[in-house]
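Backbone Fold Data
Goal — fold tokens
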Amino acid sequence: MQRALELAVRGQGAVEPNPMVGCVIVRDGELLASGYHRRFGGLHAERDALANLPAGRDVTGATWYVTLEPCCHHGKTPPCTDALLTAKPARVVIAMRDPFPQVDGGGIERLRSAGVVVEVGLCQQQAWQLNASYLTLVQHGRPWVIAKWAMSLDGKIATHCGDSQWISGEQSRAMVHQLRGRCDAILVGGRTAEVDNPTLTARPPGPRVAARLVLGSAKRIAVDCRLIRTLSDAPVRLFTRSTGTNVERLSRAGLDVVPLKGADSRRFPLQVLQHCGQLRMTNLLVEGGGALLGSLFEAGLIDEYHVFIAAKVIGGQQAPSPLGGTGLQRIRDCPDLVVVSHQRVGEDIFVRARRQMPLGKPYD
């Protein structure tokens, strides 16, 4: 199963909004074949493994290790359960169930009803972490939200005058571009779009082209800003309550304006995420600023944190910190996170933390 998980990761950035899946077929301790889902619309992991089977090799009576429940419905490809049953496995070991409504235990039941021994739950925690973005989209109708920021040792993301370029080093910024290249969208607030005038593209390009999203007033977006000047590189959407001439000029410039509903600004970030979910986006990167990140945090909508800590000290009570808003009252109310990795990147320290896997169904 560990090998199947390693194979599955190879599909990252190419299979979304599908899940990353790996498959290994063994018999009597001998590896017969392996495969993984390589690209959206391509063969699923089980069929890819069969395609990699050496000519003349029989897999009857083998044990199949699959990182996610085999599909049992017709999508872009036929059901994987059909391929498995034709191959006549003795046992199928599955890391976790697939909560997708057209599967959701159906693949497991199909195999068991045909007399195949099915075991579920091996390396379940790793399988959930692997496809957390896919699972979030399926279950909550929104993408997995990654919050990214660079800060000083004293927790500042800029000076009290607003200067922030550059807190982190060149190698850290290169890592951010790699992250951008595997996300479906990048979100910033209106103030960040106005003050920083960012491009928000991946350089060099990655396997995915992220849409650039701005949440804020149309007044903050200049028609000659970098986002609009680079519309040919990636789409730009403005989520706003603004109306009138400012919206019209941006629409004429080619920017897609999405109107926000209601007067409660605390619900605006969720509206953005729901819009992304309707477009089947799986990974959303939030690059600030503090007000936007704070509103997402207080709404419980941040799933993962990518934090770059630089060996700099800025000081000042008025210098901004990463998360604005009111903040928590009690330490015990902090979200339940797990540190996935921490490493030195040039002169910076990079820490990655994310939500813990929820317990119980539909993962068991």
Observations:
- The two ends are 16 Å apart (CA to CA).
- The chain has twelve helices and 14 strands.
- The longest strand covers residues 337-345.
- The CA atoms of residues 199 and 230 lie 7 Å apart.
